[in-house]
Amino acid sequence: MAHTHQHNNFEALLERHHLKKTGPRLKVLSMLSAKKVATSQPDLESVMDDIDRVTLYRILSAFEEKGIIHKVFDLNGTANYAMCSSNCEENHHHDEHLHFNCTVCKNVYCLDDLNLPPLTLPNGFKPEGFTLYATGLCPKCSKSAEKK
Questions:
Q1: Which of 59, 70, 75, 131 is the residue whose CA sits 20 to 30 A from 101?
Q2: Which tops the pLDDT comparison, 130 or 41?
């Protein structure tokens, strides 16, 4: 029952962004929303053998453009994708939150719940967005390090 409800939410999300409700798009949304970490295209490819690389690239690009997902880079410079907050719009993301890169497991976490101070820039600068990164150990890797 929960799966059907989630599927309907994804269909409504695609409809709201004027995107066709295709199986591959719904599958990508399902995979990304189920993850607790940002996910790279190669990682998605490895679990979605029924969606070719070009189709997946186009889906991710369309979702990013529409404000459904956002791109964040890991420590190796690889693009990873995570679901956007509900207030993102087409061509204008509002994902100004901390991105935490774990130096051990290499996962990228979106820490949406942290309250960040407002960004104040010198006169003449007009921000269109910003990305804030932190590196260190995630809770799982930190716990493993303590046991050693």
A1: 59
A2: 41
Q: Binding site for Zn(2+): residue ranges?
A: 102, 105, 138, 141
Q: Binding site, residues?
A: 93, 95, 102, 105, 138, 141
Asked if 73 and 41 count as a contact pair (C-beta separation under 8 A), the reply is no
Number of domains in the chain: 1
Q: What is the pLDDT of residue 63?
A: 95
Could you tell me the pTM of the whole model?
A: 0.82
Give the distance from CA 60 to its chain's centroid. Answer: 10
CATH number at residue 33: 1.10.10.10
| Cβ atoms within 10 Å of 77's Cβ, excluding its own | 6
The pLDDT score that the predictor gives to residue 7 is 65
Binding site, annotated residues for Fe cation: 93, 95
Instruction: With a cut of 50, say whether residue 133 has pLDDT above it.
Output: yes
Q: Between residues 4 and 72, which one has the greater pLDDT? A: 72
* Separation in Å, CA 140 to CA 40, 63, 107, 147: 20, 30, 11, 11
**Is residue 70 within 8 Å of 64, Cβ to Cβ?**
yes
Element (H, E) at 53: helix 53-66
Domain that residue 142 falls in = 2-147
